[in-house]
Write a structure and sequence with these properties.
The protein is of the alpha/beta class. Helices cover about 35% and strands about 20% of the residues. A hairpin with a 2-residue loop joins strand 10 and strand 11. Helix 3 packs across helix 10 and helix 5 crosses helix 6. The longest helix has 23 residues. The chain is globular, with a radius of gyration of 22 Å. Bound molecules: adenosine-5'-triphosphate. Keywords: ATP-binding, Hydrolase, Iron, Iron-sulfur, Metal-binding, Nucleotide-binding.
Length: about 350
C-alpha cells in the first residue's frame, strides 16, 4: 500500500515557480487520501487566478508517476486560499487592497481598474471595486449602474452600513453614487479624507480576496488618505506610451516609494500601446511610440504587466455599461484575464517576500 509519506516525498520535488520552494515546504498539499488504485489530494494555491495552475498540476502528476507509480489514477483538487498581510487589522475581511493609479488623467486608469476587478472575479476571486476618483468618478457608467443609490442599513449597534451595488459579481461603490454629476464639488483635504474613509469603513464589503481601488490621476489627498489609513498590498500603475504620460507616471511611482507611503509596485501596464484596426486584426501600429511603459517598469525594478491596444470596442463597452472583459467573444477579454493573473501572482509574491 502506498503511504502518505511517499506521496509527500514525491510532491516535495515539485517547485512553485514563483516562490522557488517545493509545494510540501510551502504547506500547499492537503487532504491526501489513498486507495489501492487511486491517490487524491488538494493543492492549495495562493490565488484562484494563479497563472501557474496548469503547470503545477502537471508537475504533480509527473512526480507521482515518476516516484510512485506511472499507472495509478491521480485526482488533484486545485483550490486556493488568498493570503493577506500580517497585522491586517483595519479591515479584517478584506484580504488585499490593490490601488490603480496613473500620473496623467485620461490614460485609461478606470478602464483598467474596472476590467481588472471583473477579471479577478471571473477567475473565481471575491472582488470589490472602489471608485475613489473624486474628480471624475466613471465606474458607475462603466458598470451600467449610473443613477443607482446604494442602500444604507442600520446595524444592531446602531451604526449605518452602506451596501455596495453588485454587478457582474463585483461589489461596487463609487463616490459618484453620492454626488450630483451636474454639480461640481470643490473638494478640500479634510472632506476628501472623510469621504474616502466612509467608503472603506462604513461599507458592508463582506469577505473580499481583492478590493481594487481606482484612484484619481496624479498624487493628492486621496492617495495619502488611502496609503496612511489602510494596509494596501500594492499599486498598479497605468500609463500610455507618450513621454508626457510617462513623466507623470514617474512622479506617481515616486510617491508610492516615499518612506511615509511605502506601497509596493505590483507593476506597470501600458494602455493604448498600439492601434489595431478592426478589419486588420493582426496589424499593430505603434502610433504613440514603443516600449515606454516597459522602460519605466525596468527603471523602477517593477514587473511590466503588458500592453493593451487602442481599440474601439474597449471604449464602446465602457460607454455601454459593461467592462469588455465580460465579453468572452472579444479577443481583448483574454488580455484582461491575463493581466488579472499577473497582478494576483505579484500579490502572492509580495506576501511570500514578507514571510
Ligand atoms: N485601450 C483603449 N482603447 C480604446 N479606448 C480606451 C482604451 N482605454 C481607455 N479608453 C477610453 O478612454 C477614455 C478614458 O478612459 P478612462 O476613463 O479609463 O481613463 P482614466 O485614466 O481613468 O481617466 P480619468 O482622468 O478620468 O481618471 C474612456 O472613454 C475609455 O473608454
Amino acid at each position: 500500500m502506498i503511504t502518505k509519506e511517499q506521496v509527500l516525498h514525491a510532491l516535495s520535488f515539485v517547485e512553485d515557480p514563483d516562490f522557488k520552494k517545493d509545494l510540501v515546504t510551502l504547506n500547499m498539499i492537503k487532504d491526501i487520501e489513498i486507495t489501492p488504485n487511486n491517490i487524491r489530494f488538494s493543492v492549495v494555491l495562493t490565488t484562484p487566478a494563479c497563472p501557474m495552475k496548469d503547470h503545477i498540476e502537471r508537475a504533480c502528476r509527473n512526480a507521482i508517476a515518476h516516484f510512485i507509480d506511472k499507472d495509478i489514477a491521480v485526482s488533484i483538487h486545485m483550490t486556493s486560499k488568498v493570503q493577506t498581510k500580517p497585522n491586517n487589522k483595519q479591515l479584517d475581511k478584506i484580504k488585499n487592497i490593490i490601488v490603480v493609479a496613473s500620473g496623467k488623467g485620461g490614460v485609461g486608469k478606470s478602464t483598467v481598474a474596472a476590467n481588472l476587478a471583473l477579471a479577478l472575479q471571473l477567475k473565481g476571486a471575491k472582488t470589490g471595486l472602489l471608485d475613489a476618483d473624486i474628480y471624475g468618478p466613471s465606474l458607475p457608467i462603466m458598470f451600467g449602474v449610473e443613477g443607482e443609490r446604494p442602500k444604507a442599513t442600520k446595524t444592531a449597534e446602531g451604526n449605518t452600513k452602506i451596501e455596495p451595488i453588485e454587478k457582474f459579481g463585483v461589489k461596487l461603490l463609487s463616490i459618484g453614487f453620492f454626488t450630483d454629476p451636474n454639480q461640481p464639488i470643490p473638494w478640500r483635504g479634510p472632506m476628501v479624507s472623510a469621504a474616502i474613509k466612509q467608503l472603506f469603513n462604513d461599507a458592508d464589503w463582506g469577505e473580499l480576496d481583492y478590493l481594487v481601488v481606482d484612484l484619481p490621476p496624479g498624487t493628492g489627498d486621496v492617495h495619502i488618505t488611502v496609503a496612511q489609513n489602510y494596509p494596501v498590498t500594492g499599486a498598479v500603475i497605468v500609463t500610455t506610451p507618450q513621454n508626457v504620460a510617462l513623466a507623470d507616471a514617474k512622479k506617481g511611482i515616486g510617491m508610492f516609494m516615499m518612506n511615509t507611503i511605502n506601497i509596493p509596485l505590483l507593476g506597470v501596464i501600458e494602455n493604448m500601446s498600439y492601434f489595431t484596426p478592426a478589419e486588420l486584426p493582426d496589424n499593430k501600429y505603434y502610433i504613440f511610440g514603443k516600449d515606454g511603459g516597459k522602460r519605466l517598469a525596468e527603471r523602477f525594478g517593477a514587473p511590466f504587466l503588458g500592453e493593451l491596444p487602442l481599440i474601439k470596442s474597449i471604449s464602446d463597452a465602457g460607454d455601454n455599461g459593461y467592462p469588455i472583459a465580460i465579453d468572452e467573444d472579444e479577443p481583448i477579454s483574454k488580455a484582461f484575464l491575463s493581466l488579472a493573473e499577473k497582478v494576483a501572482q505579484q500579490i502572492s509574491i509580495q506576501h511570500q517576500l514578507s514571510v
